[in-house]
Amino acid sequence: MKITFLGTGTSQGVPFIGCDCAVCTSPNPKDNRLRTSVWIQTPEASIVIDTGPDFRYQMIRAKVHTLDAVIFTHGHKDHTAGLDDVRPYNYRQKKHMPVYATLPTQETLKREFSYIFQDKTYPGIPQLTLHTINSSDPFYINGLKITPIRVMHYMLEVLGFRINNFTYITDANYIAPEELLKVRGSQAFVLNALRHEQHISHYTLAEAMEIARETGVPDTYFTHISHQLGLHDEIEDTLPKGMHLAYDGLTLEL
Questions:
Q1: Which of 52, 55, 93, 176 counts the most CB atoms within 10 A of its CB?
Q2: Which 3-state string (H, E, C) describes the chain?
Q3: Does the pTM of the predicted model rise above 0.90?
Q4: With contact defined as beta carbons under 8 Å apart, do 46 and 3 qualify?
Q5: Owning domain of residue 182
Q6: 16: alpha, beta or left? (left if phi > 0; alpha if psi -120 to 50)
Q7: CA distances (Å), origin 162, targets 18, 19, 151
């Protein structure tokens, strides 16, 4: 299995508009972060988790020529805004794009992209097939088992996913003990770590590190990072063995 980090930034990305801080003006490409998303390639499937506002560019930059499905963690704009740009895959693959989401997330998609779901549509709009995720049950894409992990993003339930020995969780500030058990045994774990200061709906770096220690996973990669966390290389140097800051374009082979 190959995992490509398409974006590792918070909802407004890095650089932050109008900011002249050391991170936003850094010449290090690892300090430039598009909105959070990953591409997962296995022998069974090519899957993207979340289609944020940068989706089109992310697909071009990563050279994603084939896409079998899109999975959504939740309905916030920084995770859904690029959905319209699945159209080239409709054209190239000559089929509807399977989209996997919970019912609340589907309702958000139907509201934000109402023209896709109207009874009377027109040529050229995205062609989607919605599949409902029951957050308590695994589901399958081309035979690949995907296990949802329920987490809380302040008062909103968000889904993480366990795929083989890889676990991906973003936009969380609480994971119940029974859900955290689903992470154990992973080879690699991705978790959000927004900044150092407390936040109402995201883990801080210190909180994310503590969660990582609880799981016992050998390698954890932090994502959904803001410019407030600091320069990539400086923060990376402070992390203990087995913990890393993810960055756009990073690939893992598991």
A1: 55
A2: CEEEEEECECCCCECCCCCCCCCCCCCCHHHCECECEEEEECCCCEEEECCCCCHHHHHHHHCCCCCCEEECCCCCHHHHCCHHHHHHHHHHHCCCEEEEECHHHHHHHHHHCHHHHCCCCCCCCCCEEEEECCCCCCEEECCEEEEEEEEEECCEEEEEEEECCEEECCCCCECCHHHHHHHCCCCEEEEECCCCCCCCCCCCHHHHHHHHHHHCCCEEEEECECHHHCCHHHHHCCCCCCEEECCCCCEEEC
A3: yes
A4: no
A5: 2-253
A6: beta
A7: 37, 36, 13
Q: What is the pLDDT of residues 127-182, one digit of tens each?
A: 999 999 999 999 999 999 999 999 999 999 999 999 999 999 999 999 999 999 99
Any idea what the CATH number is for the domain that residue 111 is in? 3.60.15.10
Q: Answer for the pair 171, 153: CB distance below 8 angstroms, yes or no.
A: yes
Quote the number of domains for the chain.
1
